[in-house]
């Protein structure tokens, strides 16, 4: 490797090609990020220059954030090159705070990453510790003493404010903190004071997590990585058993579950399943993940195996306890149907199983859209809204039993300009209309549609062989421009 | 005697194959011939023929067949829709899908829920591929409520991108007694839905005790395990009557032109009207007129004999042969 020239990355910063990152040897040569590329080349013609890829860096950092959720579920991003881990309540699992920090640095090192870590009880001080004093652990109450000798770059200030403060001679955090607050806020903006307060613990600041934190989760760290799908299923069963008492104590059942798997090489897979009813039964949960794993069809890429598995309840609902009477459970059949629905959705995705959702509208597309069965409201709440009753008794004119998602344009000829179609051509076939009923005028919903949307005149027509169609004319004949006709549905 | 032994051996081999398809151990009972007695209510019906013509039709009980609502229509259809079995409804062209769907659903709903009226909330599963969805539209709840009185709460639609997933869904759903019926919609005649697959669906429908209907869009009849096969096209509807007089130019109850292709003593053509008020079918009297519309045949008059709508069935085998030709050659 010694024969390889020093490496720098360059990108366009403020309309100039500048260095954005340097390797260690380039750093020893006196190159630093921010230097112009032409100047760097003039100083050291032998360096190797590659274009910077900020998007790839950001993607990599997100992957790393997913990996870091093995230490704590609360992981947030810090700029383009840092991660915040909120380790409250997690440190004891790794033998204390020092143990956790060592573990994180060692494991990242094993992935081939050189990382710096710092630990503090406020977000701002943790930032300063990690960036400027790697390995430091700042106890609560000692933030001020720790930060005082540090330069202003410890405070996450904007470039302009930092340059301004430095220009007036405030080079360390201690000197800035000694100044009257009102004057600083007036001259350099209130953001400076906010950053200072956050670092010193005077104002609260929390890590905003990258992923939602589950209410309940169970995880298992394996001494020997799991490679076989059967092993993963068995561990999932164990985790589901561990979750059951917690769900029972809360009177809840899981509606959405996620299984996260950490592979030994740092990759993280997340599999999630939805359920059709609040679920607690460990066997049923295992069966759902069995379908989900089967649907992956070998794309799980086990590699050298998974070392941590975490089962999280992402969404839950009140669990209705059922009592079985002597005549048998009246809901026995529907339970089997719900279990079938869950298996189908776990295997084929939530879009695979749909149910109609009725809405109070005249617009046929919106009146009964098919929505995923998971989001489907239970029967009782929809009965109350009365939409069902109106759909059954409301429209007097017959409705087609099949509706096209997008109305299909047809070439229709009508005897009189706004009269029924005499014949039409649909999918390259000519139909002669024998009978027609209509029109039924459905006006566009002006509060939803653009103002120019034409009204629709629906006709129910029957051709000579008895096929019945639902046609509509959009707008009216105006001058020489004929109105457009569409076929929207098929009748029985 | 030798030929008898061979045919028994053949029969046993076939039984084993069927058992392997159905993932079940063969239940061979000495002395019994085809079928397994009391477990197969639909198979036990006997048809008496005299000189090739049926003299006594298949007599089914209400428990075995779902009546269409019209006795004569039931007779022509061999008793009605088999209750605990696979049936096939074919729309020869995509544009007839509306008619085929209405008839399939109407008969499935007439069957009622498998557990008696207390299970009247049992959902109906409509399983289809996304392709069939876009070709002939999606099932629309207001129209189904209007025509069949189907509560939208009871409609469950499975729409999957691939045929393999559809067959998986159908296989999982077919044995569920909590579903009032399973309707499987396919386009054309895919090779994946073969005799073995339909036979498996049929066995599961029999276990669950309620109908499974295979609805084919734009398909031709082919060998399957379905007990009943209907070819359905739209027929001109009845006119609306006012004070007992039909009003010209109105579109009344929908009508369907059915061809009973399998499952009845004889191939029959009939026209059924769906009475949406009584929720039953009514047979339209008289012979159905199968003539194509004038616009479809620009040269009136038969120049040569018209080809049938289905592949040539082939000549009947020569009466002198005792064995199927394939075995003779081997």
Keywords for this entry:
heterodimer, A: 492 residues, alpha+beta, 6-stranded antiparallel β-barrel, 4-stranded antiparallel beta sheet, 16 helices, extended, B: 330 residues, 8 helices, 16 strands, 26% helix
Descriptive overview:
Chain B: Residues 23-43, 283-330 are annotated as: Disordered. Chain B: It comes from Zhengella mangrovi. Chain B: This is Protein ImuA. The complex is a heterodimer of chains A (492) and B (330). With 492 residues, chain A is an alpha+beta fold. Chain A is 33% helix and 28% strand. Chain A contains 16 helices and 17 strands. In chain A, strand 1 (7-13) and strand 2 (16-22) form a beta hairpin. The radius of gyration of chain A is 33 Å and the shape is extended. Chain B is of the alpha/beta class and 330 residues long. Chain B contains eight helices and 16 strands. In chain B, a hairpin with a 2-residue loop joins strand 12 (241-242) and strand 13. The chains are: A alpha+beta (492), B alpha/beta (330). Chains A and B meet through helix 13, strand 10, helix 16, strand 12 and strand 14 of A and helix 3, helix 4, strand 7, helix 5 and strand 8 of B.
């Amino acid at each position: 490797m010694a024969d390889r020239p020093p490496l720098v990355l360059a990108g366009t910063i403020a309309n100039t090609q500048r260095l954005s990152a340097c390797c260690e040897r380039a750093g020893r040569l006196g190159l630093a990020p921010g230097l112009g590329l032409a100047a760097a080349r003039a100083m050291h013609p032998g360096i190797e220059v590659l274009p910077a890829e900020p998007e790839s860096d950001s993607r990599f950092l997100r992957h790393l954030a997913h990996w870091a959720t093995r230490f704590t579920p609360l992981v947030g991003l810090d700029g383009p090159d840092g991660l915040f881990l909120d380790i409250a309540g997690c440190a004891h699992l790794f033998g204390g705070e020092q143990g956790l920090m060592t573990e994180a640095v060692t494991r990242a090192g094993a992935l081939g990453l050189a990382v710096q870590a710092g630990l503090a009880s406020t977000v701002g001080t943790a930032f300063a510790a990690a960036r400027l004093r790697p390995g430091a652990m700042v106890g609560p109450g000692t933030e001020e003493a720790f930060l005082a000798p540090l330069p202003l770059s410890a405070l996450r200030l904007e470039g302009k404010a930092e340059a301004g403060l430095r220009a007036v001679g405030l080079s360390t955090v201690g000197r800035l903190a000694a100044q009257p607050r009102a004057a600083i806020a007036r001259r350099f903006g209130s953001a400076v004071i906010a950053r200072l307060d956050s670092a010193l613990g005077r104002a609260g600041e929390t890590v905003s997590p990258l992923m939602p934190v589950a209410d309940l989760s169970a995880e298992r760290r394996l001494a020997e990585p799991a490679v076989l799908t059967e092993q993963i299923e068995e561990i999932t069963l164990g985790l589901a058993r561990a979750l059951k008492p917690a769900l029972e104590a809360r009177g809840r059942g899981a509606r959405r579950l996620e299984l996260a798997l950490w592979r030994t090489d740092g990759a993280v897979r997340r599999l999630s399943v939805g359920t059709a009813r609040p679920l607690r039964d460990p066997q049923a949960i295992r069966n759902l993940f069995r379908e989900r794993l089967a649907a992956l069809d070998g794309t799980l890429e086990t590699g050298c195996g998974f070392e941590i598995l975490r089962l999280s309840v992402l969404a839950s609902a009140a669990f209705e306890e059922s009592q079985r009477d002597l005549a048998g459970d009246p809901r026995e059949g529907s339970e089997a149907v719900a279990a079938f629905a869950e298996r189908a959705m776990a295997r084929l995705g939530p879009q695979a199983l749909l149910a109609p959702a009725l809405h109070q509208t005249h617009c046929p597309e919106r009146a009964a859209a098919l929505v995923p069965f998971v989001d489907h409201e239970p029967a009782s709440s929809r009965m109350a809204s009365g939409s069902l009753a109106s759909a059954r008794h409301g429209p007097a004119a017959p409705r087609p039993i099949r509706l096209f998602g997008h109305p299909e344009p047809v070439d229709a000829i009508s005897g009189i300009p706004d009269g029924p179609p005499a014949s039409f051509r649909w999918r390259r076939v000519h139909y002669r209309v024998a009978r027609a009923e209509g029109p039924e005028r459905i006006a566009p919903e002006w509060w939803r549609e653009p103002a120019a949307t034409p009204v629709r005149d629906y006709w129910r027509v029957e051709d000579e062989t008895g096929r019945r169609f639902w046609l509509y004319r959009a707008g009216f004949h105006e001058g020489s421009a004929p109105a457009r006709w569409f076929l929207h549905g098929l009748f029985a | 005697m030798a030929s008898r032994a061979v045919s028994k051996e053949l029969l046993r081999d076939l039984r084993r194959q069927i058992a392997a398809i159905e993932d079940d151990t063969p239940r061979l009972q000495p002395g019994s011939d085809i079928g397994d007695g009391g477990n197969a209510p639909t198979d036990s019906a006997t048809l008496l023929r005299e000189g090739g013509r049926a003299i006594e039709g298949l007599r089914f009980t209400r428990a075995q067949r779902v009546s269409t609502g019209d006795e004569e229509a039931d007779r022509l259809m061999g008793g009605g829709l088999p209750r605990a079995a696979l049936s096939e409804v074919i729309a020869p062209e995509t544009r007839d899908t509306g008619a085929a769907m209405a008839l399939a659903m109407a008969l499935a709903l007439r069957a009622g829920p498998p557990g008696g009226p207390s299970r009247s909330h049992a959902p109906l599963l409509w399983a289809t591929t996304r392709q069939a969805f876009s070709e002939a539209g999606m099932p629309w709840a207001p129209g189904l409520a209007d025509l069949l009185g189907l509560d939208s709460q009871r409609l469950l639609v499975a729409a999957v991108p691939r045929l393999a997933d559809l067959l998986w869904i159908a296989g999982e759903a077919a044995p569920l007694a909590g579903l009032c019926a399973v309707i499987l919609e396919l386009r054309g005649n895919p090779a994946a839905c073969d005799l073995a697959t339909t036979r498996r669906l049929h066995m599961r429908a029999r276990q669950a005790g309620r109908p499974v209907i295979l609805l084919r869009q734009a398909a031709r009849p082919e060998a399957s395990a379905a007990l009943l096969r209907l070819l359905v096209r739209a027929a001109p509807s009845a006119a609306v009557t006012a004070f007992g007089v039909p009003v010209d130019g109105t579109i009344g109850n929908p009508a369907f032109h059915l061809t009973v292709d399998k499952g009845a003593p004889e191939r029959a053509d009939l026209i059924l009207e769906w009475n949406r008020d009584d929720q039953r079918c009514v047979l339209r009297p008289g012979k159905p007129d199968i003539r194509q519309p004038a616009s479809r045949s620009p040269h009136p008059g038969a120049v040569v004999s018209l080809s049938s709508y289905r592949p040539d069935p082939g000549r009947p085998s020569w009466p002198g042969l005792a064995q199927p030709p394939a075995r003779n050659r081997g």
